[in-house]
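User: Assemble these into one structure.

Assistant: Restating your components, then the assembled model:
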Amino acid sequence: MSNPSTGTSSKSKVGSSQPSETSFKRKRGVFQKDLQHMMYGFGDDPNPLPETVSLVEDIVVEYVTDLAHKAQDIGSKRGKLSVEDFLYLIRKDLPKLNRCTELLSMQEELKQARKAFEVDEEKLGTTE
Amino acid sequence: MKQSKDPFEAALEEQEESPPDSPIGQDELDSQTQNQTPAGHHTLVDDDDYDEIGTNVDNPSHQSSNPTPMLLTPSVNANVASAAAASKNKEYDDDEEEENVDVELGKFPSSADPAKMAKMQAILSQFTEDQMSRYESFRRSALQKSNMRRLLVSITGSQKISLPMTIVVCGIAKMYVGELVETARMVMTERKESGPIRPCHIREAYRRLKLEGKVPKKSVQRLFH
């Protein structure tokens, strides 16, 4: 049974249905710092064990990889990959779906707010 | 941790996640030391979308313990969030209303559910310091969008990864981590163990999630052969 949390490993995309343009070297600990805080927030120790964090990172990367592959399969029928494909994939998981729609709407309104802010600044600039 | 302001002000403009209904309850929240929140705040700085507005907030009135004035939500969000909130899974406390928006842009009405906001406020006011620190970590932590984008590009082979896609995947991944950690904690209480979560707990949690069907089936098994 391979232990994914041992040592340095360069993970090439084995078994991917799409041919990769280059072999992808994934560095260890891409998400480590963020994951530590996140795991504490979700119930772990303030200082989670490094091997636990590595394992969670592996699992998450695998999850994202599978999700992206599936989304790509769906998106290829339409032509290109879009956010809709991801939303379709998690449609059964209500908390995630709600959270994603919320994130998207927030991002939209932040964009609007920033645009409005810039317009105000322009107005101030011209009147001075 | 910026103690001069409420710790949620800087965090809330993006992390509007409602805390999942933890099956363990308050047990694991005891005797946890203060988390390294300055580093936790650092994750927000990378978020070029969200931090500008948050840092501009003018809130001299927030020195008092009542954080209600800062619970502002743009009206746009209210319309969309109400639809989302209505269909929200009941086990999640709806805390999306806590968004920190620059007050100079106008005072927006709070989101559709003031009752839930009030409930959240009541809960938050009773948090111990440890609980507050953990909750703050929960709200502020996020996977970096740049890293996620890099990962998505390498997976799909396409450079055209839009920003909303990155945001969505980061959100999904964070919730997935939450499921894993909480299930692992459940496993630990079942086995009557304590302390930091160990990889064996995570593996057991992963196995259980797979049985529940929350893990997408892979075409090729890469882990745990």
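The first helix of chain B runs from residue 7 to 11.
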